[in-house]
Amino acid sequence: KKTLKIASIPGDGIGKEVMPEGHRVLEKAASRFGFDLRFTDIEWASCDYYQKHGDMMPADWKAQLQTQDAIYFGAVGWPDTVPDHVSLWGSLLKFRREFDQYINLRPARLFEGVPCPLAGRKAGDIDFYIVRENTEGEYTNLGGIMYPGTEREIVIQESVFSRFGADRVLKYAFDLAQSRERKHLTVATKSNGIAISMPWWDSRADAVGQDYPQVKIDKQHIDILTARFVLQPQRFDVVVASNLFGDILSDLGPACTGTIGLAPSANLNPERKFPSLFEPVHGSAPDIYGKGIANPIAMIWSGALMLDFLGQKEAHDAILKAIEQVLKDGPRTGDLGGKATTVEMGKAIAELI
Ligand code: NAD
Ligand code: IPM
Ligand code: MN
């Protein structure tokens, strides 16, 4: 029997509430499809751990995780106790960089039974992927503050784009678009205002696109692109974006499909040199933590993406079907207009597998 070794990191806030529902559903899928899951439960990479140890993770974190097949991750961040940039650069952003998880794949799909905030849209009208560059771009610690505390304070924060980094994420996005029926790739840009990196990003898209004559390239400035997510979501198939633009688009896309409470993500090292990481798009949601009302679907769907990446496609498909069924006529959490608890929803999904 095949055994998959999974590092399970709940993190903070509702990460701790949705993680058990992820386990519940994945365990059920494993028993149905005949493989074993060996979870290693990890309490570090959390703000609780930071308060005790003065650091987000132990020194040997990388060695501990490197032996795992994948990382199943809840959410990190508790700004009341640890500044967000400290907790996130000390955990999640380290994983993405040091494990070279350069693809952040984030689907947005409108399901049957989910109230859509956009008028006149029905299930199936919204169905696209955001491919977010995940290791460079606007996310850096390069820069500094000069003349701090004075009226002449100056802040500089550099962005870093490399040809290697841009080409590999563009190639992944073109491959994905090529594999889909519509073969349509939107390239998020801002080549009018961001006058160095963005015209360059466009030119890399054209260069990589040479190998994909069947894929239609649609370059859009990020400002109008966000407007079109709302006004014409059916226009999108695959959207490729830099780290920051992809971050913003991947909250907006799922919001257009009803709630960010169901949006999953796959932080991939496609070469499998390092473990990949699977997590909800959402964060630790301090405003609802402790009430047991968080939507567990983002966590559960992320788990399904993890199983798919680890070769268990049937298990992935069964989980997705169960999610679809529950969204159609099962219990629902508050963000979906219902009154169900996190646990009730997790159990309803598990029962359908
Ligand atoms: P958030 O995603 O935690 O919450 C935004 C809003 O969405 C809140 O009103 C919240 O209640 C709601 N929400 C989120 N997930 C939900 C779910 N599953 N079910 C129902 N409602 C849900 O974003 P934020 O408030 O900007 O950030 C809170 C903390 O989380 C910060 O520390 C932030 O840095 C961190 N964060 C972490 C990650 C991550 O670990 N990947 C992602 C985003 C934010
Ligand atoms: C996400 C989150 C992170 C990001 C934060 C918490 C650093 O918003 O995964 O989308 O910006 O990448
Ligand atoms: Mn985000």
UniProtKB/TrEMBL annotation:
Source taxon at top rank: Bacteria
- Keyword presence, Flavoprotein: no
| Enzymatic class | oxidoreductase
Coiled-coil regions listed in the entry: none
Which cofactors does the annotated protein need, by name?
Answer: Mn(2+); Mg(2+)
GO MF terms, alphabetically ordered: tartrate dehydrogenase activity
Q: What is its EC number?
A: 1.1.1.83
Return the InterPro entries for the record. Answer: ICDH/IPMDH, IsoCit/isopropylmalate_DH_CS, IsoPropMal-DH-like_dom, TTC_DH
Protein name per Swiss-Prot or TrEMBL: D-malate dehydrogenase (decarboxylating)
By sequence similarity, the record places it as follows: Belongs to the isocitrate and isopropylmalate dehydrogenases family.
Q: Please give the SMART domains that the UniProt record associates with this protein.
A: Iso_dh
What reaction does this enzyme carry out catalytically?
Answer: (R)-malate + NAD(+) = pyruvate + CO2 + NADH
- Domain Isopropylmalate dehydrogenase-like residues, every copy: 5-349
Q: Which Pfam families match?
A: Iso_dh (PF00180)
Q: Which UniProt keywords apply?
A: Manganese, Metal-binding, NAD, Oxidoreductase
